[in-house]
Design a protein that fits this description.
Layout (H helix, E strand, L loop, with lengths): L24 H12 L4 H8 L3 H17 L12 H29 L1 E11 L6 E10 L3 H10 L7 H16 L3 H36 L7 H12 L1
Antiparallel strand pairs: 1-2
Helix pairs in contact: 1-2, 1-4, 2-3, 3-4, 3-6, 4-5
Length: about 230
């Protein structure tokens, strides 16, 4: 009698993958197009279906990676999605700002509204004549004044914007009793830690380079004397 083993080998359970990132190519494209249209961060995030804090966090990660890993090179084709998003949105924002400034400058100096050409033959002399009529919109100095007021000499970084956004969210939802209880203790702990680190730095500076390097004539000499006493 032949025994046939029909038992199938146990299948491995598929590994659970982490939560897929919301930063998909479609989301990146929506954020870029919304920024290129001149929308601010909040409206651009709404157009892409993400939170403003999420958009700012992505931009912060991209900015940090550009500075620390890419030597400041902004690459729209980077395999790092945060770097690519930062590059595309930054470039789109620059184009939108340049376009807006050009429109304001045009309004300040005036622009051609319409231009028409007419040609005819003089019935008396028989000469061919032509006429060009141009209608211009007069300039408005208030457009230039508005632009000068809007210039920001110290723009906020994404870190500062993200801190402000997180503070706004905390203010809207309110701090929990646990957060209110822990905040003073954490602040006190941070202050004490900073003070201790400063003391360590002062002590290291007072010891000098020879002692920090472990020169035997200073520290090891005392240990040797103690060993001699124990042997005697």
């Amino acid at each position: 009698m032949t025994n046939t083993n029909t038992t199938q080998p146990a299948r491995r359970k598929p590994r659970r993958r982490g939560r897929p990132s919301l930063l998909t190519p479609t989301t990146m494209d929506l954020l870029t197009r919304a920024t290129a249209a001149g929308l601010p961060v909040k409206q651009a995030a709404d157009a892409a279906g993400v939170a403003r804090s999420t958009f700012l966090r992505w931009m912060q990660l991209g900015e940090d990676a550009v500075e620390t890993e890419h030597d400041g090179v902004v690459d729209v084709d980077s395999p790092n999605p945060h770097v690519a998003l930062y590059a595309r949105v930054t470039r789109a924002r620059a184009v939108a700002v340049a376009r807006a400034h050009a429109n304001i400058e045009e309004a300040a100096r005036g622009a051609v509204v319409s231009e028409t050409h007419r040609s005819w033959t003089d019935p008396v002399t028989g000469e061919h004549r032509s006429e060009r009529r141009v209608r211009r919109r007069p300039g408005d100095w208030r457009a230039s004044a508005w632009l000068l007021v809007r210039f920001d000499p110290n723009p906020k970084s994404f870190d500062e914007q993200l801190d402000e956004e997180e503070a706004r969210i905390r203010a809207e939802r309110g701090e929990t009793p646990m957060e209110r209880a822990l905040t003073p203790h954490l602040q006190d702990l941070a202050a004490r830690l900073q003070k201790t680190l400063a003391q360590y730095e002062e002590e290291d500076a007072a010891l000098g380079p020879a002692t920090q390097a472990g020169e035997p004539g200073v520290l090891l000499g005392e240990v040797g004397d103690a060993d001699v006493d124990r042997e005697g």
